[in-house]
Amino acid sequence: MAQLFDQTADTYLRLALLAVLLFLIGLATVMSTYGEPRYITAVGWAPDQPVPFSHAHHVDGLGIDCRYCHSTVARSSSAGFPATHTCMSCHSQVWTQADALEPVRQSYERGEPLRWRRVYDLPEFVFFKHNVHVSAGVGCETCHGRVDQMPLTRQATSLQMEWCLECHRQPEKFIRPRDEVYTMGWQPPKDREKMGRRLVEEYGIDTEILTNCSICHH
Question: Taking a C-beta distance cutoff of 8 angstroms, is the pair 211, 169 a contact?
């Protein structure tokens, strides 16, 4: 029987397999260096909501403070969702017949809360407290991005452990004065880290324990 492949075919096959292996190693290296793809981290994801609420309109356009709707953010682990009567305090007077607000009117009339979908949803084994971070001078936009520029609320950060640890390892690079926590587009001073180190001491932040596993995983 005639030989189907010449003697160089085996060499070419080995080189092709080596090239595939090197490509896969390179791809894994790039992914580990530059982070997980967005379809895994959900960065940029904006879930459908019962009402197309625009932070850009309410925060930037109308100047409504974060705490008006997220009233428990400074005193509870949860920032809280606004009760329907909070929405109706304005919308009983303006946009009273808007089709987009029909779910709000029905919620108010029936006494049933709106079923908002979470944009940020941590795993059950991670414990996060909004009030602790607010007290430590962590700005809303540090985790949630520029919500004042979001027509629809989307996930701005990955919430991966390494992302959290970046701040926990060096909080002086991220924290701000408490009276600027809710400020969107806050501009830090040129000596940010100097200010940060002062605030770390002023707020009593114990940097020795911030990277301890028990801080987030009880």
Answer: yes
Instruction: Name the DSSP class of 180.
Output: G
Closest CA to 136 of 206, 186, 189: 206
Task: Name the band, by pLDDT with cuts 50, 70 and 90, for residue 88.
Answer: very high
Instruction: Note the helical H segments in the chain.
Output: 9-34, 38-41, 55, 66-69, 84-91, 102-110, 130-135, 140-144, 161-169, 192-202
Q: What residue has token string 């403070």?
A: 65
Give the model confidence (pLDDT) of 202-213 as tens digits. Answer: 999 999 999 999
Q: Which amino acid is at 25?
A: I
In order of 4, 65, 80, 183, the CA distances from 153 in angstroms are: 62, 16, 15, 17
Which residue in the block uniquely carries the two structure tokens 């005193």? Answer: 75
Stated as kind and residue range, the H or E segment containing 160 is none
Domain boundaries, the chain: 55-81+116-215
Which of 199, 203, 180 lies closest to 191, judged by CA? 199
